[in-house]
Amino acid sequence: MNTCPTRISLPLATRAEALAVVTRPERHHDRPGLRLVAWAHLMRERGHRMHQLRVRTEQRARGMI
């Protein structure tokens, strides 16, 4: 049984799950891949392309990974 209150299955099934990850990154600081997937989910929903390399570079620059 998983008692983790921030358990989110991958891929993110809903917009609400993706928003929860993106708007509260401190809750998911140890899971940069989850933040990346959440951002990709939201961008895809808006019809935008996302460059994973650019996002990873930005995360490293900010000390997020």
User: How many structural domains are formed by the residues?
Assistant: 1
Q: How do the helices and strands follow one another from N- to C-terminus? A: HHH
Helix content: 40-55%
Q: Compute the number of strand runs.
A: 0
Number of helices: 3
- Please, what is the average pLDDT? 77
Largest sheet: none
Write the layout of secondary structure elements.
Blueprint: H1 15-23, H2 32-45, H3 52-61
Helix pairs in contact: 1-2
Polypeptide structure, described:
Helices cover 51% and strands 0% of the residues. It is an all-alpha fold and 65 residues long. 8% of the residues are buried. It has one domain. The longest helix has 14 residues, at 32-45. Helix 1 (15-23) crosses helix 2.
Would you summarize the structure shown here?
The protein is an all-alpha fold and 65 residues long.
Structure keywords:
65 residues; mainly alpha; 3 helices; 51% helix
